[in-house]
């Protein structure tokens, strides 16, 4: 089997050491076995994505010595995501949602049993039960998103697992992210929909990414099952932390790879040190 892996950054900011670690592992997972390494720019968050960050990502990867076989940009592929949404809609697994953020927050606050996910309350399902006539009328005059009916999807899919090279066989909790957004009011496709469509369309066999994305993998396996897409092998790797023990993020002031490039650091030497398990001073792995 030819191993196909990918690095799939969102161009919403500069890459940092955690991204470098992820890119190196995805790259090496394929290249160590003569496989293919793909670069996919995940820019469906149209309000936050910036062309200058795309340019920076390419420079960062070259600086680290990571060459890719093929580069795709999600904003060129919106028709694929619409086709997947059509299929979910035809199968009765997607519904329009008219709620604003404020309405969702009010609904959650008023509910005693609001479902919770890894990052807090999940969408309470308000628009799932709107009757068809009202739905049609509201669609003609109000902005709306499309959501997955996760409960119905779980019934269609039956019991699921995923294979993780680090964690072993993982049982899927199909309601982990609840009725997630498939297409937003101002977002042409959600991360979850686009990522499963592209991993399948591009023949990705190994999804290598940080452990922080593991909760989403439950939802990705559910989407793969109901869309009839193949199941890749996953590798959710350890994260890089700063000295206070935070995950790296711009809001915590993590230095970017571009900062280090500008200071004249040797990117290939950095990549090789990471491969050997050595991090720059001030960073550690979340083992
Ligand atoms: N665009 C996602 C991110 O930057 C990619 C996650 C994935 O590899 O599936 O977090």
Overview of this protein structure:
By secondary structure, this protein is of the alpha/beta class. It is 38% helix and 18% strand. It has 10 helices and 14 strands. It has helices spanning 17-31, 51-64, 78-90, 101-110, 132-141, 150-157, 191-201, 214-227, 257-262, 267-275, and strands at 4-7, 36-41, 70-73, 94-97, 116-117, 120-121, 145-148, 161-164, 168-171, 181-183, 206-210, 233-237, 240-242, 283-285. A 3-stranded parallel β-sheet has the order 1-2-3, covered by helices on one side. Strands 4-7-10 form a 3-stranded antiparallel β-sheet. The chain has a two-stranded antiparallel ribbon with strand order 5-6. Bound molecules: glutamic acid (GLU).
Give the helices and strands as they follow along the chain.
Answer: EHEHEHEHEEHEHEEEHEHEEHHE
Calculate the terminal CA-CA distance, rounded to whole Å.
Answer: 30 Å
Work out the number of β strands.
Answer: 14
Query: What does the main sheet amount to?
Result: 3 strands, parallel
> What structural category do the secondary elements indicate?
alpha/beta
The order of strands across the largest sheet is 1-2-3
Proportion in β-strands = 15-25%
- The chain-level mean pLDDT equals 96
Radius of gyration: 20 Å
Q: Provide a count of the helices.
A: 10
Small molecules in complex: glutamic acid
Q: Which residues sit in consecutive blocks of at least 5 with pLDDT less than 50?
A: none
């Amino acid at each position: 089997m030819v191993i196909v892996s990918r690095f799939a950054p969102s161009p919403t900011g500069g890459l940092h050491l955690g991204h470098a670690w992820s890119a190196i592992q995805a790259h090496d997972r394929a290249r160590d076995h003569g496989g293919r390494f793909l670069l996919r720019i995940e820019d469906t968050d149209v309000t936050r994505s910036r062309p200058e960050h795309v340019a920076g990502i390419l420079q960062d990867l070259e600086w680290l010595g990571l060459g890719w076989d093929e580069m795709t940009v999600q904003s060129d592929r919106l028709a694929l995501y619409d086709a997947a949404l059509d299929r979910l809609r035809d199968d009765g697994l997607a519904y329009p949602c008219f709620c604003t953020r404020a309405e969702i927050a009010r609904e959650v606050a008023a509910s005693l049993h609001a479902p919770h996910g890894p990052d807090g309350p999940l969408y309470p399902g308000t628009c799932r039960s709107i009757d068809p006539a009202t739905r049609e009328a509201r669609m003609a005059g109000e902005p709306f998103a499309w959501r997955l009916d996760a409960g119905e999807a779980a019934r269609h899919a039956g019991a699921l697992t995923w294979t993780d090279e680090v964690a072993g066989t993982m049982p899927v909790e199909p309601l982990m992210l609840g009725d997630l957004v498939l297409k937003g009011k101002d977002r042409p496709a959600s991360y979850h929909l686009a990522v499963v469509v592209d991993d399948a369309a591009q023949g990705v066999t190994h999804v290598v990414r940080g452990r922080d994305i593991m909760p989403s993998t439950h939802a990705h396996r559910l989407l793969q099952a109901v869309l009839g897409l193949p199941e890749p092998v996953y590798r959710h790797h350890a994260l890089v932390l700063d000295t206070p023990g935070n995950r790296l993020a711009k809001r915590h002031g993590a230095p970017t790879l571009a900062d280090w490039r500008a200071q004249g650091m040797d990117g290939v030497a950095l990549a090789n040190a990471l491969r050997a398990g050595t991090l720059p001073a001030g960073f550690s792995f979340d083992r």
